[in-house]
Amino acid sequence: MVFVGEVLEKITRRLVKAPLHRVVSPTKGTRYSVGYFQGVSMDTRVAEASAMYKYPQEVLDMQRAREGREGDTTEFRLVESDNLPAGEAVLNFKLKAHPLVAYRFYPALFPKFFPDGLPAKYASMVH
C-alpha cells in the first residue's frame, strides 16, 4: 500500500489524492508495519512545481468524474505558503502548531508567529 502526501496532491492539483492517514490497531494479535517517508526537496516551491505539469484532457476528465462521485466541488487553490521553499513552509507550519517549541528552540523566529508572546494557556509552562 502506498499513500501519497499532501505535497504531491498539491503539485498535481489534486489529480493524485492524499488520503486521510489513520491507523487501526487490531483488537487481537500484533500489528506490524514499516513506515517510509519521502518528501520533496527542501527548496521545492509547490506553486512552481504545480505549474510545470500539463495533463491530458482524458486524465482531467477522470479526475472530474472522481470528484463528482465523491461530492468534492471545492476549487483547487494554492495558498501563500506554496510560494515558499517547502522546507520553510513545513517549519512555519510546525512552529505555528507548537508555540513552546518555537519559544524554546527558535527564539529568532518566535516573534514572527507569536508577536503578542506565548498564548496564555502556555505562559505558565515557561520557567
From TrEMBL:
Entry superkingdom: Eukaryota
GO molecular function: dioxygenase activity
InterPro entries, sorted: IPNS-like_sf
Keyword Oxidoreductase: yes
Alphabetical keyword list: Dioxygenase, Oxidoreductase
Protein name: Fe2OG dioxygenase domain-containing protein
Organism of origin: Mycena sanguinolenta
